[in-house]
């Protein structure tokens, strides 16, 4: 009887028990690693989405709204001699109600008030100046050849009240309208001596002597623009408030030469204004019936009437400004 002395594990092709245990442990670890890898790469396992919760303490971004831009407002002040005190009342009401004027353009009496206003004198100060004004101090009579009044006293007064600054140096842009005596064309003064410009704009023919500037002579701007609306536009105004203080023609036919001359200006001014004032956004007409352009004693009443019409038209002024605000 034969006995098989070979190791049964060897005959069966098996490893010894300790080695087999080590092999099984290693194989198990490798299998787990493979399973883990399969789980990581398996397409059947979708990625977990990451949800970001906003920080409640951070403010929500807001797009700033554009700041409303009002239209560039121009004030067109007309001529009318002593009736021009009404311009002061209009300026007072605009200031008191926060209506900002960006530029001013004046003719004759309007050029005088406009110059003082553009130089930085507010409505209250303008009234003080008006009430203390001595018309004798701005009237220099001369031999009546080309005019009764020379006009240099007026120019000196304006220079003094505006600090001897040029038109282009004033805090508020100012335009002054006069008429070229040679060809009848209008001129808008924007630079140079303020006093000379006001003197030229106020030089009523036969009353004031013409003003020579360079090689040209100039007279009252009311001959071409009694209320200088189009020139305020030319200066860049997007909205124009026009103040018409012109004296209407007297139904009674005047008997003397001077009144006849003033009547002629009134008729002419009325005709021109029918065209000129069409370009204004708002027209203010103070109720100056019975007020003479040569009567300086009515200055306080004229200022009050300027205030009255400006106050009455204030809602219309605000409406027009709102309509053109971008």
UniProtKB/TrEMBL annotation:
Chain ranges of the PNPLA domain: 75-233
Keywords: Hydrolase, Lipid degradation, Lipid metabolism
Compositional bias segments (type: Pro residues): 56-69
Highest taxon, organism lineage: Bacteria
Start and end residues of each stretch annotated as Disordered: 44-69
Motif (GXSXG): 106-110
InterPro entries, A to Z: Acyl_Trfase/lysoPLipase (IPR016035), NTE (IPR050301), PNPLA_dom (IPR002641), TAT_signal (IPR006311)
Catalytic residues identified in the record: 108 (nucleophile), 220 (proton acceptor)
Name of one Pfam family that matches: Patatin
Motif (DGA/G): 220-222
GO molecular function: hydrolase activity
GO process terms (BP): lipid catabolic process
UniProt-listed PANTHER family: NEUROPATHY TARGET ESTERASE/SWISS CHEESE D.MELANOGASTER (PTHR14226), NTE FAMILY PROTEIN RSSA (PTHR14226:SF76)
Protein name: Esterase
Species, as recorded: Roseateles chitinivorans
């Amino acid at each position: 009887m034969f006995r098989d002395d070979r190791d049964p594990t060897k005959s069966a092709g098996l490893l010894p028990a300790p080695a087999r245990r080590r092999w099984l442990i290693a194989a198990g670890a490798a299998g787990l690693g493979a399973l883990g890898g399969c789980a990581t790469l398996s397409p059947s396992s979708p990625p977990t989405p990451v949800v970001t919760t906003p920080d409640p303490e951070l403010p929500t971004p807001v797009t700033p709204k554009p700041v409303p831009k009002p239209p560039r407002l121009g004030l067109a002040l007309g001529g009318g001699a002593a009736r021009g005190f009404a311009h002061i009342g209009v300026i007072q009401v605009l200031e008191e109600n926060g209506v900002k004027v960006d530029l001013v353009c004046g003719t004759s009496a309007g050029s005088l008030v406009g110059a003082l206003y553009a130089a930085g004198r507010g409505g209250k100060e303008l009234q003080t100046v008006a009430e203390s004004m001595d018309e004798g101090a701005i009237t220099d009579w001369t031999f009546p050849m080309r005019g009764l009044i020379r006009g240099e006293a007026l120019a000196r007064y304006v220079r003094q009240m505006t600090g001897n600054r040029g038109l282009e140096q004033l805090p508020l842009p100012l335009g002054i309208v006069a008429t070229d005596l040679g060809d009848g064309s209008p001129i808008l003064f924007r630079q140079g001596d303020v006093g000379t410009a006001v003197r030229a704009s106020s030089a009523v023919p036969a009353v004031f002597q013409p003003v020579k500037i360079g090689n040209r002579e100039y007279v009252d701007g009311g001959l071409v623009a009694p209320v200088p609306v189009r020139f305020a536009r030319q200066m860049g105004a997007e909205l124009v408030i026009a103040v018409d203080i012109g004296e209407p023609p007297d139904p009674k036919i005047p008997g003397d030469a001077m009144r006849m001359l003033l009547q002629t200006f009134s008729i002419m001014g009325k005709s021109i204004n029918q065209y000129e004032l069409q370009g204004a956004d708002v027209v203010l007409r103070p109720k100056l019936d019975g007020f003479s352009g040569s009567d300086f004693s009515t200055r306080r009443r004229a200022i009050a009437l300027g205030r009255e019409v400006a106050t009455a038209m204030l809602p219309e002024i605000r409406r027009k400004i709102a309509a053109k605000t971008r």
